[in-house]
């Protein structure tokens, strides 16, 4: 059975991934703010390093997979937390664990979002891709939650596409799932937000499949991509959103 590391495992999508992997007999090393094998605040450099060191200690023989699932939604304040956790922590941890993945030809599944396709490739995205964390946080500080969130996922998707070929040459598959609206504590907070709630409710009502998703429906696809059944997938971003992206961008794929 495999050895996997997962961030953001306490609730929502991460909790569902943890359950499915463990139900399939795998060892899952979990990282979260206040519970799990390693408690670490991934918004800060020290927390990311603590998480990397902790995973190394618990997986001395390497990793079959890594899922950087920890993330914050557009209702979170300060907005700088969004790029810190959604982009910089996911990238730093993937890079920091690469050698553990190389040895076992491991697989990374990132959690992007269908919202990534709703914003352009702007200065904020470029700052993230240029690894300018302070500048990206400063840039987004006085903007809006949707731009902060969707931009962080746009940058993460670009990072994946730029890096997946080189990782693949080394035998490590990196792919992403791009969920639509999934019923988790994150989306509950957005629905309850006075500025974002109404738009989110309307958006949820327009999902072509007729309802918003459940965390297990994302975990199903993540576990498939991690498995040998997806052994030729590399650099893919899979929309799991009830048809929303196809509805909004029919001619782009
Ligand atoms: P969630 O709030 O249920 O889970 C997020 C997890 O991340 C929690 O366990 C939380 O404790 C952890 N976390 C947050 N900040 C952290 C930090 N600083 N350090 C360590 N851990 C931290 O939300 P979710 O909806 O399950 O989100 C999981 C992922 O899915 C996120 O990356 C999110 O952006 C993405 N996503 C969610 C949706 C949705 O509609 N729910 C849609 C698209 C993408």
TrEMBL record:
Keyword Chloroplast: no
Annotated TM spans: none
The keyword Oxidoreductase appears for this protein: yes
Keywords noted in UniProt: Oxidoreductase
EC number: 1.1.1.50
Pfam family name, one: adh_short_C2
Signal peptide: none
Main enzyme class: oxidoreductase
GO MF terms, alphabetically ordered: 3-alpha-hydroxysteroid 3-dehydrogenase [NAD(P)+] activity
Superkingdom assignment: Bacteria
Family per record: Belongs to the short-chain dehydrogenases/reductases (SDR) family.
Name of the protein: 3-alpha-hydroxysteroid dehydrogenase/carbonyl reductase
Organism (species): Zhongshania aliphaticivorans
Gene that encodes the chain: hsdA
């Amino acid at each position: 059975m495999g050895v996997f590391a997962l961030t953001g495992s306490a609730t929502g999508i991460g909790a569902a991934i943890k359950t499915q992997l463990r139900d399939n007999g795998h060892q899952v090393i979990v990282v979260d703010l206040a519970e799990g094998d390693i408690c670490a605040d991934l918004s800060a450099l020290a927390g990311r390093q603590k998480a990397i060191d902790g995973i190394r200690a618990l997986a001395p023989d390497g990793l079959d997979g890594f899922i950087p699932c920890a993330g914050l939604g557009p209702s979170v304040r300060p907005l700088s937390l969004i790029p810190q956790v959604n982009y910089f922590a996911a990238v730093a941890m993937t890079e920091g664990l690469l050698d553990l993945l190389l040895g076992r030809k491991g697989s990374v599944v990132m959690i992007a979002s269908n919202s990534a396709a709703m914003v352009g490739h702007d200065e904020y995205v470029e700052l993230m891709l240029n690894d300018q964390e302070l500048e990206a946080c400063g840039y987004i500080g006085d903007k809006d939650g949707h731009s902060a969130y969707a931009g962080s996922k746009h940058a993460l998707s670009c990072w994946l596409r730029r890096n997946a070929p080189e990782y693949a040459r080394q035998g490590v598959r990196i792919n992403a799932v791009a969920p639509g609206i999934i019923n988790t504590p994150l989306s509950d907070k957005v629905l309850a937000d006075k500025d974002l709630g109404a738009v989110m409710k309307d958006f949820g009502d327009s999902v072509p499949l007729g309802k918003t998703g459940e965390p297990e429906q994302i975990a199903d696809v993540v576990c498939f991509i991690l498995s040998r059944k997806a052994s030729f997938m590399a650099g893919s971003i899979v929309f799991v959103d009830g048809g929303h992206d196809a509805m909004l961008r029919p001619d782009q794929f």
